[in-house]
Amino acid sequence: MSADPSQWDRDQIISRIDTSVPHSARVWNYCAGGSDWYEVDKQLVDQLLADYPSAAGLAVASRQFLGRAVRHLVREAGVRQFLDIGTGLPTGDNTHQVAQRHAPDARIVYVDNDPLVLLHAEALLTSTPEGATVYIEGDVRDPDTVLAAARETLDFEQPIALMLLSMLGHIEPGPAAELVQEYMSRLPSGSYLVTCDSIDSPAMVELNVHYAASGAAPYYVRSREDLAATAKGLEILPPGIGPIPEWHPDTAAPAPADQMDQWGLVARKP
Q1: Name one GO molecular function term (predicted).
Q2: The overall pTM is greater than 0.85
Q3: How far apart are CA 207 and CA 211, in angstroms?
Q4: How far is CA 16 from CA 56, 190, 234, 238, in A?
């Protein structure tokens, strides 16, 4: 699909949106306080959170982690390029907004295969004059196509931060780790991986069983070892693998308990 929104067939995109079953991007958007969801998504989330209130803050935690990680990579590591796969629906402080706030010349490529995300992608296609922001319709499972398209915007001779936030859970842990390793093998030295997913606590395991029973695409929770496998051969930055609210928090106040079942890491390719 063209990167120029003026050439998109919006009616054709809308025809691909299935409102009969919940969808992860819309569910996540509802959890994060957004407005791009349907009643079927709201009903599922309300039902799940009534039974598993410990998950109520996971979407917020993921968005805040994104902001802190991008800010750290731009300001402390000098990263100027981001490949954000599984973009999700636009909310506040998207990757390009955080990055370009601190480095106006930052270049960001967003990738997703959800027609609703595509429909709202124009909100992501804003950029400072010095930088660039591009949206690609693509599937994380197809690194050849994704990376070929990303090369049109990103310089693969310079470090790139690969962002995979709260989305690898749609792929079983073993294949997901292999996929991440494949992406990182093609990025230059000095590149980074930023990833997070729901940890395999009893509540998250049960919640995702009920989530899949709704007809939504299954989501596979992760163990600490599963997360570590995505960073095989990389240098995991302090404080290591753990609850994402504890990754360079902005305040010393304890994180809400309903954010602690989302774990993640930031790692550097030597």
Answers
A1: methyltransferase activity
A2: yes
A3: 6
A4: 29, 39, 38, 42
